[in-house]
C-alpha cells in the first residue's frame, strides 16, 4: 500500500523536479524536442527587467502582508482567549470565515469594495467630500488593495495557530506576575511573547512561503494590473510558461523561486535557532 | 474539553475588571466588524437588482430584494456544471488524500525501517517544494500520462500531502503498541488491524484532514486552470475567475456565482466546526 504512495511521490514530485531542472537548461516549448541551451535561460533571467520587476513587487508584497498578518492574527487570537472579551464564540466564527473563502472570491470581494467607479470605499470618500481614489489604475494603490485583501484572507488560519499556542501558556506565570503587580503590557511582552515564540516562528515561515506564491487573489483583484505592473513571481512563471509556451525559460524562473524560498526558510530557521540558544 | 487556563482566572471581581471587559470587548467587536463587513456587504449586494448595483447613493440593504443575479448565474453561466466538477474533484481528492495519508502516517509511526525513515524525510521535503515551483514540469508529466484536460489530472497530483501524513503519524505514535501486539496475538492480519482498530480510533484526525483537504481542493485555482482547457471541465474557481477576467465584468452574475460557490464550504464548516477549531494544529498544516 505504501508503495502506491511512493510511486505518486516519485511521479509528482521527484520526477517533475528532475525534468524541471533539466528543462531549465533547454529552450523546450512543450512539444517536439528540447534543444540544450546551457545556462542561456538563467543568463536571460538576469537580464530580464520584467523578471526583476516581478521579484521586487513580490518582495514588497510579502514584506507588507507577513507583518500585517502576524499582528492581525496574534491580536485577534489574544482577544479570543482573553477572559475580558464578551461574545467570543460568535466573534471567533466571524474571524474565521475568510478561511473558507477561496483566494479568487476573496479577491472579488475586495475588488467590489474598492471599485473605482462603483465601489463602497470611493462612494464613502466622495460622500465625505474627497476625490475618488484610483484604486485600480494606480500601481501602488492597486498593490495596497491586494495587501489588504491578503491580510484579511490570511488572518484566520494563523489566528487558529496562535489561539492554540496562547491557550498553552501556563497560568501560573500570569498569576506570579499579578502578585508582582505587573501590568498588561509587561505581561504580554515578558511572558506571552516568549512562550509562544515557536508558534510565531511557524506563522512567519508559513506566511512568508505562502505569500511569495500568491496568485489567485491577485488575479481576482486586478489581474496583476494595471498592465503588468503588479505581476508577482508566480504570475510571471505562469505567463511565460503557459501563455507563451516557454517551458524551459519558465522552469529556470521556477528554480530561482525555489532557491529564494529555500533561502528564506533556512535564514528563518537559523534566526530562530540563534534566538533559542 | 477543559477550559483553557486563560479562561479560568476571572470571577474574583477585582477592581479594574469592568473597564477592561469593556475595552477588550469593544476592540474585539470592532475587529469583528472590520473582518465581517466585506463579506456581508458582498452578500447583501448580491441581492440587489443589476440596475441598483452602481447607482449612487449606495445603500447597505437592497431597496428591492431579488435573486435575479443568482438565477442568471445558474442558467446562463453553467454554475451547475462547475459545481458538479468541483464537487467531483474535491470529493475524490479528499477521499484519496485521507486514505493515502492514513496509511503512510500509520506506517511511519508503527514500522521501523530505514527506507520508511528516508521516505518520511522526503515527504517532509515536499513542503519545501510547493507545486508552484515545479508548475511547468509537473504539467508536462501529467500531460504525458494522458491526464491533460481531465478532472483526474487535477486530483491525482494533489493526493500526497506532508500535512496529512504527519497529522496521522503524530496521532498513531500516541496509540500504544500493545494494542497492535494484542491484535497480532489474536491472529489479526496487519491490514485488518489497521482497518478495524486503528482507523476508528483516528476518526477525529480523519474528519479534520477531510475538511482541510476539501477546502484546499474546492478553492484551488492555479493547478485546475493549467490542466483544464475545456469549459465543460471547469471548476468553480476557474469559472468565477473567467467572469472577472472578461472585458466588461458582469457584476450581477459574478456576485451571484461567487456567493453560490462559497455556500458548500460554509455549510461544512458550520456542521463540523469543532473539528476545525479544535484541530491540534502542528507545523505544516497549510497547503
From TrEMBL, chain B:
<comment type="similarity">
    <text>Belongs to the binding-protein-dependent transport system permease family.</text>
</comment>
<feature type="domain" description="ABC transmembrane type-1">
    <location>
        <begin position="83"/>
        <end position="272"/>
    </location>
</feature>
<feature type="transmembrane region" description="Helical">
    <location>
        <begin position="193"/>
        <end position="214"/>
    </location>
</feature>
<feature type="transmembrane region" description="Helical">
    <location>
        <begin position="118"/>
        <end position="142"/>
    </location>
</feature>
<feature type="transmembrane region" description="Helical">
    <location>
        <begin position="82"/>
        <end position="106"/>
    </location>
</feature>
<dbReference type="InterPro" id="IPR000515">
    <property type="entry name" value="MetI-like"/>
</dbReference>
<keyword id="KW-1133">Transmembrane helix</keyword>
<feature type="transmembrane region" description="Helical">
    <location>
        <begin position="154"/>
        <end position="172"/>
    </location>
</feature>
<keyword id="KW-0813">Transport</keyword>
<dbReference type="InterPro" id="IPR035906">
    <property type="entry name" value="MetI-like_sf"/>
</dbReference>
<keyword id="KW-1003">Cell membrane</keyword>
<dbReference type="Pfam" id="PF00528">
    <property type="entry name" value="BPD_transp_1"/>
</dbReference>
<keyword id="KW-0812">Transmembrane</keyword>
<protein>
    <submittedName>
        <fullName>Sugar ABC transporter permease</fullName>
    </submittedName>
</protein>
<feature type="transmembrane region" description="Helical">
    <location>
        <begin position="251"/>
        <end position="272"/>
    </location>
</feature>
<keyword id="KW-0472">Membrane</keyword>
<feature type="transmembrane region" description="Helical">
    <location>
        <begin position="21"/>
        <end position="44"/>
    </location>
</feature>
Amino acid at each position: 500500500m505504501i508503495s502506491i504512495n511512493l510511486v505518486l511521490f516519485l511521479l509528482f514530485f521527484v520526477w517533475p523536479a528532475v525534468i524541471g531542472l533539466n528543462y531549465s537548461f533547454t529552450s523546450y516549448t512543450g512539444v517536439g524536442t528540447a534543444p540544450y541551451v546551457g545556462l542561456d535561460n538563467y543568463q536571460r533571467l538576469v537580464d530580464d527587467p520584467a523578471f526583476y520587476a516581478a521579484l521586487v513587487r513580490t518582495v514588497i508584497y510579502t514584506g507588507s502582508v507577513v507583518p500585517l498578518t502576524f499582528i492581525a492574527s496574534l491580536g485577534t487570537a489574544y482577544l479570543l482567549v482573553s477572559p475580558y472579551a464578551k461574545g467570543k464564540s460568535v466573534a471567533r466564527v466571524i474571524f474565521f470565515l475568510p478561511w473558507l473563502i477561496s483566494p479568487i472570491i476573496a479577491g472579488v470581494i475586495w475588488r467590489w469594495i474598492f471599485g473605482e467607479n462603483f465601489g463602497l470605499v470611493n462612494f464613502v470618500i466622495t460622500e465625505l467630500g474627497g476625490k475618488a481614489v484610483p484604486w485600480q489604475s494606480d500601481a501602488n494603490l492597486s498593490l495596497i488593495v491586494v495587501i489588504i485583501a491578503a491580510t484579511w484572507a490570511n488572518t484566520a488560519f494563523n489566528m487558529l495557530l496562535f489561539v492554540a499556542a496562547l491557550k498553552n501558556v501556563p497560568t501560573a506565570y500570569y498569576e506570579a506576575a499579578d502578585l508582582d503587580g505587573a501590568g498588561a503590557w509587561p505581561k504580554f511582552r515578558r511572558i506571552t511573547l516568549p512562550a509562544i515564540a515557536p508558534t510565531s516562528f511557524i506563522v512567519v515561515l508559513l506566511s512568508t512561503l505562502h505569500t511569495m506564491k500568491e496568485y489567485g487573489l491577485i488575479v481576482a483583484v486586478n489581474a496583476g494590473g494595471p498592465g503588468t505592473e503588479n505581476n508577482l513571481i508566480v504570475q510571471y512563471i505562469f505567463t511565460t510558461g503557459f501563455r507563451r509556451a516557454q517551458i524551459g525559460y519558465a522552469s529556470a524562473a521556477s528554480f530561482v523561486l525555489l532557491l529564494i524560498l529555500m533561502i528564506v526558510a533556512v535564514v528563518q530557521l537559523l534566526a530562530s535557532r540563534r534566538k533559542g540558544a | 474539553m477543559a477550559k483553557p487556563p486563560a479562561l479560568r482566572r476571572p470571577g474574583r471581581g477585582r477592581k479594574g475588571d469592568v473597564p477592561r471587559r469593556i475595552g477588550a470587548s469593544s476592540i474585539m467587536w470592532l475587529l469583528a466588524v472590520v473582518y465581517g463587513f466585506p463579506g456581508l456587504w458582498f452578500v447583501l449586494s448580491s441581492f440587489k437588482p443589476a440596475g441598483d448595483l452602481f447607482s449612487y447613493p449606495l445603500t447597505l440593504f437592497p431597496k428591492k430584494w431579488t435573486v435575479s443575479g443568482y438565477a442568471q448565474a445558474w442558467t446562463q453561466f453553467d454554475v451547475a456544471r462547475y459545481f458538479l466538477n468541483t464537487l467531483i474533484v474535491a470529493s475524490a481528492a479528499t477521499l484519496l488524500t485521507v486514505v493515502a495519508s492514513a496509511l503512510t502516517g500509520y506506517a511511519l509511526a508503527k514500522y521501523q525501517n530505514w527506507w520508511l525513515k528516508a521516505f518520511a524525510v522526503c515527504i517532509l521535503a515536499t513542503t519545501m517544494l510547493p507545486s508552484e515551483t515545479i508548475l511547468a514540469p509537473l504539467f508536462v508529466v501529467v500531460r504525458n500520462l494522458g491526464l491533460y484536460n481531465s478532472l483526474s489530472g487535477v486530483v491525482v497530483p494533489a493526493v500526497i500531502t506532508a500535512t496529512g501524513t504527519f497529522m496521522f503519524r503524530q496521532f498513531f505514535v500516541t496509540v500504544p503498541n500493545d494494542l497492535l501486539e494484542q491484535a497480532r496475538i489474536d491472529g489479526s492480519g496487519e491490514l485488518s488491524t489497521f482497518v478495524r482498530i486503528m482507523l476508528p480510533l483516528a476518526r477525529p484526525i480523519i474528519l479534520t484532514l477531510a475538511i482541510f483537504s476539501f477546502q484546499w481542493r474546492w478553492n484551488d485555482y492555479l493547478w485546475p486552470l493549467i490542466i483544464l482547457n475545456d469549459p465543460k471541465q471547469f471548476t468553480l474557481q476557474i469559472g468565477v475567475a473567467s467572469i472577472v477576467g472578461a472585458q466588461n465584468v458582469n457584476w450581477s452574475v459574478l456576485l451571484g456565482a461567487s456567493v453560490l460557490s462559497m455556500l458548500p464550504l460554509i455549510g461544512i464548516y458550520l456542521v463540523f466546526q469543532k473539528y476545525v477549531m479544535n484541530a491540534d494544529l502542528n507545523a505544516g498544516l497549510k497547503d
